[in-house]
Structures are given as C-alpha cells and as structure tokens.
Amino acid sequence: MKDTGLIALSAAVVIAATIFGVFHYKSREEQSSISVVGMASRGFDSDIVKWQLSVVRNVSTQNLPQGYSQLRNDITAVVEDLAVRGIARDNITVQPLNTNPIYEPQGITGYRIQQSLTVVSDSLSLIEDLALNPESIAAKGIIIEFSNLQYYYSKVDSLKVELLGEATRDARRRAQEIASVSDVSVGAIQTARAGVFQITEPYSTDVAPGGIYNTASRQKDIRVTAHVTFSLD
Fold first, then answer.
1. What's the start-to-end Cα distance of the chain, in Å?
2. DSSP H helical segments within 118-224, as ranges?
3. Per-residue burial over 195-211, b = 16 or more CB atoms within 10 Å of its CB, e = otherwise
4. pTM given for the model
5. Residue 64: predicted pLDDT
6. Residue 195 to residue 216: CA distance in whole angstroms
7. For 150-204, what is each residue's pLDDT tens digit?
8. Nearest-5° angle of CA 152, CA 165, CA 157?
9. What are the φ/ψ torsions at residue 169 (nearest 5 degrees)?
10. CB within 8 A of 61, min separation 6: which ones?
11. Cα torsion at 68, 70, 76, 80 (round to 10°)?
C-alpha cells in the first residue's frame, strides 16, 4: 500500500515537473519575438485630372427635335474648344443624352435634355482653368448644369510599394528601440502584414477600415502601417 502511494506521488512529481517544463519553454518561446507597428507617410501632387460636366437645354414640347440639334451643337462646341486648347479627342468621352419632362399644373410643358462629357487629362492647370472659369463656354450660350473635378496619381501603385518598405523599416527601428533596454537584438522578420492605405487631403486625420482614396484635392497625403513580428536573438 505504501509502495502504491509512493509510486503515485512520484508520478505526480514527474507530471508536475513536465508541465512546468513545458510552461517554462512556452514562456521563453513567446518572449523570443516582438511585434510592432511601423508607419510611413508622404505628400504628393496628382498628375491626372478627370473633369465631368453636363450640358443642358430646356425646350418646349413642340421643339424637342430642335432641342436635340441644339444640344448636339453645344457638345460639339465644347469638344472643339477643348481641342483648340490641346485636349485630344481620345481623352473626351461623350455619354448618351437624357430627356426629362418638365411638369406644370397643366401637364407637361416641355423637356429638359441633358448630355454629359468626361475629360481625362494630364494638363491639370488647363482643365482647372476651364472648369473654374467657364466664361468662354457660357459666352456661346451653353449652359453647364453640373461640373466636377477629380484628381488621381498615375504612379500610385509604385508609391504604395515604396511606402510599405518605409513602414517596414520604421517597424524595425521601433523594435530595436524597444529591444535596446534588454540584452537582446532584433533578428529576422517572422510575419508581416500591411495595413490599408489612407489617401487624404493634406493635414486630414480621416481614416477608414477599408482605406480612403480622396479624389477631391489636387495635393494629397498618403499613409500606411505595417504590422511586423521580428525574432529576438
């Protein structure tokens, strides 16, 4: 009976020692790496602008065919004006026209016909001047109902790659700063995960879980984070 108790006690000691050993090993293993978040940001200027505008005509019910002809002439005049200023026809997209009835208490009294154009160009200053100062278009009797500018950067993919490299290097610097207070050094990358890109207007603090691509401003800021785990030697 005593032998049985002794055997049980010995087994319990062995099991406890094994559990402690595994726990101690796991603790040391968990402390053999460090996870940090690096960040990189940069300001840049757009090099592509997209101008969307709509031209309209209001006509009576009897003059709808003439209204279509007038609107076609308006669109042709806008395209020609852009061509004179150096915008290639291939950079201009003309959408099909839309016709909406104009209702009055007595019924339909006329139609509002509208047609949209989209201009994509690397001549930002030229397009901005036309969009912000449409007097030359208005002087021809052309009515612009809607006008909107959007700005893009043609090398944004290359810029994103550069920023990811900078964010990863920033993560290593942060890890080294943390590790400097202990007798360890930062080793190789174990895991790395890129955050989403936040492309905003300058000095903006806006962020979104899925990222942001602001097209309203010509000048932009881009920010990205890198979540990196390094081994500790």
1. 51
2. 124-132, 135-138, 156-179
3. bebbbbbeeeeeeeeee
4. 0.81
5. 95
6. 23
7. 999 999 999 999 999 999 999 999 999 999 988 889 999 999 999 999 999 999 9
8. 25
9. -65, -35
10. 108, 109, 110, 111
11. -170
